[in-house]
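Protein modeling request. Please complete all fields; requests missing the sequence field cannot be processed.
Requester role: graduate student
Desired output: 3D structure, token encoding
Chains: 1
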Amino acid sequence: MPSLSGLEVQQELNKRGVDLPIIFLSAHGDIEMAMNCVEQGAFNFLVKPPIPEKLKDLVEKAIKLNKSQRKIKKETKELQKLFSQLTSTEQMVARQVAKGLTNKMIGEVLDMSERTVQSHRSKVFAKLDVGNAVELFQFLSDMDNSSNL
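Delivered output (149 residues):
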């Protein structure tokens, strides 16, 4: 893309959902340009000519971070897929259990009997392969927080 600036290429990659890390190299960059690139998602911004060791270290860090982010995204998708297999009622019960509410309290909030809550709670634990409310809370936290990457 010879007619595009580096920032325009970055914006196009962002539009296309490409999540590769970008390190800008510029002989004519200024602080405003560097800040703009980083705000748009660039990993870093270096002035030419870069110090070879610094560039190598940045590339290694960028690759390591990208691999980690991709792993988290994959795990998050797996958690979301598992959670989506719950019925809507089971999902509501799961969120209430994760808040630490008792079966009786959940029944009052969701207008169902305590026995019905117990049944849904048991199904949620089995389907999500969690053993208690703390593990369920962690499951939901991982699922919800990881999707913000």
